[in-house]
Amino acid sequence: MKLRLLTICAALALSAAGLHAKTFKWTSASDIPTLDIHSQNNALGNGVHASIYDALVYYNSRTFKAEPQLATSWREISPRQMRFTLRQGVKFSDGSALTADDVVFSITRAMARTSNYQIFTQSIDRVVKVDNNTIDILMKDPNPVLINQLTELRIMSKAWAEKNRSVEPKDIRTKDETFSHRNAMGTGPFMVKEWQPDQRMVLVRNPNYWGNNPTNVTEIVYTPVRAEATRIAALLSGEVDFVLDPSPQDLPRLRANANLKVMDGVENHTIFLGMDQHRDELPGSNIKGKNPLKDLRVRKALYQSIDSANLNRVTMRGLSQPTGTLVAPQVAGWTEKVHQRLPFDVAAAQKLLAEAGYPNGFEVDFACPNNRYINDEEICQAITAMWAKVGVRAKLRTLPLVTYFPMIQRFEASIYMLGWGVPTFDALYSLQSLTRTVGTGGDGNYNVGRYTNTRMDYVVDRIKVETDLPVRNRLLTEGLQLSNDTVSHIPLHNQIIPWAMKKNIEVIHRADNRLDWRLIQVN
Predict the structure, then answer these.
(1) What DSSP assignment string belongs to 182-244?
(2) What is the pLDDT of residues 367-422, one digit of tens each?
(3) Which of 36, 68, 473, 475 has the greatest count of CB atoms below 10 A from its CB?
(4) In which element (H, E) is residue 76 found?
(5) What integer pLDDT is reported at residue 20 of this predicted model?
């Protein structure tokens, strides 16, 4: 009788849980490039990875202050040594316990040759185990933004990686795959049930999750849909609950729909163009024997022939903040002065081209993604038309995210579009990645135009170790201004991100354009 009563109670409990089980269905234009947490530093991928894997620390979605995750506390032993106390009782989704060995392994893995996360590990010399619940991070030099950088270094099971031949991250520049590229096993609130790249991803709740997971969602279904109209149709029909990237032209009717709601926020994400300033001759150009993009006058001409106000009004429907620098206002180092753009001036652009020796312009390759940023392809089409007015004949080619990023990482584009968020909220992240001469340890890891400037390298290297905050902030601003003065890139705008969803969906809008999986409610 007792056993029968227990069985009935268990059945009733499962039935009640089933009544409250909710599926959250969402979509955006592109799929994540990999499930490997140390392979490709991609904003969409990092957001999804955060549902499966945890880091030592992570940002609070409401305050954006770093707070404990797998580490419960940390303290400075010396300017070059930080000690972290690990949370006890944490298990991976397969039931195995998290250990200090896993943390040492994972951060060391993020430092590997094939990792695209060295920008976050650049100051780390080594990670050592103190005891089963404690690790030390030993640094080459003092690092004032170490805690911010650790928010993007997620922790993997050492035993799982060794068993599945995934000790090193997948190299994004090759087509070779590791087990960790298509499979995942972390300590986060959800785990992967299914992933068919470019088709469908299904996540389910991790029964071994250590933390508070107040969401009523038990299953997350992600469907990447490149076509804007199809994404919106899926929301209107109820096929999906949430669209991460609704098109600007669809927003008025979405806002007017009583069954839907739209949440807006300025994203910590800047869109810009990069230029090949390394090769002596540009492939596919009609200019032979030299590279026009090495000439500052040419770069300024390309910049000043772009009508950013028109892009904002027509192409972006007001969902952009034109900018003259590489970072958004939330980022340390930003000032109103560095934010100011060079003026749009067709006559000045033509004069600069003539002075540089190209009175009739030139032909140049122009590569853009077509499913990564808001209206990315449309922006590039508009810029192509603007450049044509000053004689620059850009041969535009657009590619999906999954092939676009490995392509530019192989230095195969003359001019390219890139968007850059700043997860550390500190301009070092952008300056080191985008303007530091290509080197090791994260230096120039997305400087795919191979810009180089001796003063910039000096400033970036000083910022890495400067702990006097007023001095450091001045150096950050100097680096951003130097980028402006030398036109290392052509800044376009900071994205204003609208999220569209059914009326019954509750989420927290984050400046990094990520969902906090623990806080989603389907009412």
Answers:
(1) H----SSSEEEEEEETTTEEEEEE-TT--S-----EEEEEE-----HHHHHHHHHHTS-SEES
(2) 999 988 989 999 999 999 999 999 999 999 999 988 999 999 999 999 999 999 99
(3) 36
(4) strand 71-78
(5) 67
> Which tokens belong to 45?
């991928």
Residues 316-331 have pLDDT tens digits of 999 899 999 999 998 9
β pairing state of 22-27 and 242-243: parallel
- Report yes or no on whether pTM surpasses 0.70: yes
Quote the tokens at residue 299: 């770069």
> How many CB atoms lie under 10 A from the CB of residue 115?
27
Q: Which CATH class is domain 270-495?
A: alpha beta
* Pairing mode, strands 392-399 and 242-243: unpaired
- How far is the first Cα of the chain from the last one, in angstroms, to the nearest whole number? 38
The structure tokens listed for 96 are 């195995």
SS3 label, residue 349: helix
Q: Residue 7 pLDDT > 60, yes or no? A: no
Average pLDDT over residues 289-293: 97
Q: What are 439-477's pLDDT values in tens digits? A: 987 899 999 999 999 999 999 999 999 989 999 999 999
Write out the two tokens for 149.
Answer: 């950088």
Domain 21-221+504-522: assigned CATH number? 3.40.190.10
Q: What are the structure tokens assigned to 126, written together?
A: 């080594």
Q: For the chain, which residues make up each domain, given as ranges?
A: 21-221+504-522, 270-495
